[in-house]
Amino acid sequence: MCGLSGEIRFDGGRPDIAGVERMTDRLAARGPDGRGLWSQGAVALGHRRLKIIDLSEHGAQPMTDAENRLTGVFNGCVYNYRELRKELEGLGHRFFSTSDTEVLLKAYRQWGTSCVDHLLGMFAFAVVEHESGRVVLARDRLGIKPLYLAEDINRLRFASSLPALLAGGGVDTSLDPQAVHQYLSWHATVAAPRTVLAGVRKLPPATVRVVERDGRHHDHCYWQPSYTRRPAYAGMDAADWRDAVRDALRTAVRRRMVADVPVGVLLSGGLDSSLIVALLAEEGQTDLATFSIGFESENGEEGDEFAYSDIVAKEFATDHHQLMVPSDRVSAGLDGAVEAMSEPMVSHDTVAFHLLSEQVAKQLSVVQSGQGADEVFAGYHWYARMAAVERQQEPGTYADVYFDRPHADLARMLRPDMLADHDVSGDFVRDHMAAPGAETALDAALRLDTHVMMIDDPVKRVDNMTMDWGLEARVPFLDHELVELAAACPPEFKLAQGGKGVLKDVGRQVLPHTVVDRPKGYFPVPAIRHMAGPVLDRVREALSAPEARRRGIFRESYVAELLAAPDTHRTNRGANALWQVALLEIWLQTHSIS
């Protein structure tokens, strides 16, 4: 829901209102239903609104609480806003709207920066204290909603997307070699606070940043599950864990139906999205709108899972919509998807989500989606190998199964000035694995995947692609209470049955067994995976462009080798290496980064 922007001056000057306006206008797709600006002293805020809760103008932003002398902008949804409102009214607060934004402002007035501990939901926000000039920035626990930052000695700018910051101007757009290293090591993931651009950072998940009038700031991480076995769960068997997970997931799904507009479901036909549909049916939802997408086959690889999504739609009598995308539409839709990316993303389903969101947004403005279940409940095949090693062996094993390539391979890919002088991606993983908590190697791997890799790949992907059409996607598997429960669950219950065992046990209670016991599917886009004609043409065009030659990220000999055999070179995880190289250049060119 929505997009926010702002600027804080540290040098005694006034904020650049025109720059904030440009940032705000670049966020128009995220908030097609309203636009607002506010400025006082050294701070300016901008907002684009997507109307989900309190559809009246009382919910417009930036929102000022004159009584408490606060102004804020907010992106996301506080699912327990009604309960919090009632609590705050009992504490003497008066409300002029029915919006969750006003609840946030009153919660900040009541609890200060600890207000985040009271919020159930996905959010990024900025709150300005009029008297002190202090600005508080915050991001939700799982980083579902983004917040990008660009800072110099005189000012801090922030926005819901990286392209919005670029629209404001004055951003250092040189490439960050450490971020490029992560991009090429982790399937295009760049961990917070970095981005591929040296001048842009992102506020980490579960973080509150307090910015003082003079530019001093401090960050506070307010949430992190321990990934250890809790005494409260001692003695629970597989059936007990199944019931606990089912109850927590049912609560998460119910929470995400809070809206003043209808809520649908993106139904892939896999276990995760099918469970959402089933549990909504248990809650009494009828005529639920569900949406599936598929692609033409390429090189013998199937591009849709309609057979399974149809089973679920029929079982629960949903209002089901199928979208079949021909291969030539993939190449045509590629540029739009790249333009919507705050950071380069190589996963094939990025284009799929963008095309699907375009169609869904014609009918709804809110959907639930199944992202996150594989990381939270150990659904990927490599987790079994993680569980088989000792804790001290984990970083090396994780690199073997997760990294696209080792550090040594980057020397023959990158020009010397783009190559980090040591294995920064490996060091990051080793440091993360060494942090306190996480009893086993698998616990450490799931902690890293859930709180780092997932946030800056699938979670970011869903936010960027849906919000580019003014469509809000809610992800119940990332309900923080469900994540805490899963983190405490013994590894053997998650790894059972080839992965996500405890979730499959839930599925057998509410879904047709053909959906639960099917082979694990991925979201294939064969035209990209196999470099089908139009996609390959776009790749060649980008890599031969004058901008690419001037930039010189990759060695010419390496690029020539990839282009000579476009469908041959694969990363350790099976991704097309040419696509990974080309996508970075396509993204830079699309966003006019020189």
From TrEMBL:
Q: Which domain of life is it from?
A: Bacteria
Its annotated pathway? Answer: Amino-acid biosynthesis; L-asparagine biosynthesis; L-asparagine from L-aspartate (L-Gln route): step 1/1
Q: Where is the Glutamine amidotransferase type-2 domain?
A: 2-214
Give yes or no: UniProt keyword Amino-acid biosynthesis.
Answer: yes
The alphabetical list of record keywords is:
Amino-acid biosynthesis, Asparagine biosynthesis, ATP-binding, Glutamine amidotransferase, Nucleotide-binding
| Enzyme class, first EC level, given as a word | ligase
Q: Which Gene3D superfamilies match?
A: Glutamine Phosphoribosylpyrophosphate, subunit 1, domain 1 (3.60.20.10), HUPs (3.40.50.620)
Catalytic reaction annotation: L-aspartate + L-glutamine + ATP + H2O = L-asparagine + L-glutamate + AMP + diphosphate + H(+)
Keyword Metal-binding carried by entry: no
The EC number(s) this enzyme carries:
6.3.5.4
Among PANTHER family, the record links this protein to: ASPARAGINE SYNTHETASE (PTHR43284:SF1), ASPARAGINE SYNTHETASE (GLUTAMINE-HYDROLYZING) (PTHR43284)
Entries under NCBIfam families matching the protein? asn_synth_AEB, trio_amidotrans
Q: Which family does it belong to?
A: Belongs to the asparagine synthetase family.
- From the Swiss-Prot or TrEMBL record, give the protein name: asparagine synthase (glutamine-hydrolyzing)
